[in-house]
Design brief:
Oligomer: single chain
Number of helices: 5
Largest sheet: 8 strands, mixed
Structural class: alpha+beta
Length: 229
């Protein structure tokens, strides 16, 4: 059973090092992007790596304009080495939350997981907040897809939902159960993202994430926050 989702806005947090992709910012018709990439690649062989796999996004699902690179990049840069709860890594997903604490809790979890898996020394990492309207017909995820560290049921559901032609999946946040999260499967489910003048810094002590700092704040906040699973 699908649900009509319309969040104004949904919240997403990404690393500040995310690269811009100028092609998506241009006024060119999205139907012409493959031709433009082919032409540019003849002069700059790295352009295809920067753009990603455009074939993953049908023409009628693409968006362009200011900040479109942030949205499109989530769907064109994919890898089976980077699976997620509702994708095996062969297609992209825009994960976001309502409220902002969902995005904070989910990204903090994955930051800590990465730093621990790669045995990183103590360090801070900077993230930025994105907001955009999120709309679409989305399937509600059942409980078996929300097991903390088992993504296989969710990946099966993700393939089924895409095959139905639906726009994504709505689910209770695993890391912040008081809020909802959405997994949007197509860029045109989003308005152009707004990069808020609001950043976060996550602190890693060599074994766990201990604190986070909101943009403009002086005092670090201990992690985890209340309600985080």
């Amino acid at each position: 059973m699908s649900h009509r989702v319309h969040w104004t806005p949904g919240y997403r947090i990404i690393r500040t090092i995310y690269p811009p992709i100028d092609l998506f910012e241009d006024i060119a018709d999205p139907a012409d992007w493959e031709l433009l990439v082919s032409a540019e690649a003849k002069l700059n062989p790295r352009i295809r790596d920067e753009i990603g796999n455009l074939a993953l996004v049908p023409v009628d699902r693409r968006i362009n304009g200011a900040t479109a690179s942030i949205a499109m990049g989530a769907f064109t840069h994919v890898s089976i080495d980077r699976p997620s709860r509702f994708s095996d890594g062969t297609y992209g997903v825009w994960y976001c939350g309502d409220p902002v604490e969902v995005a904070l809790a989910e990204t903090a979890h994955h930051f800590q997981r990465f730093m621990r898996a790669t045995s990183e020394p103590p360090a801070d990492a900077d993230f930025r907040l994105l907001t955009c309207a999120v709309s679409g017909e989305m399937e509600m995820a059942p409980a078996e897809c929300l097991v903390a560290d088992d993504w296989k049921p969710g990946q099966v559901l993700g393939r089924q939902v895409r095959a139905k032609g639906l726009d994504g999946i709505l689910y209770q946040s695993v890391r912040y159960p008081a809020g909802q999260a959405a997994a949007a499967f197509w860029p045109n489910c989003l308005t152009l993202p707004i990069a808020q003048n609001r950043q976060f810094r996550y602190r890693w002590d060599g074994s766990r994430m201990t604190h986070y700092l909101r943009h403009g704040a002086i005092t670090w906040t201990p992690w985890p926050i209340s309600g985080v699973a």
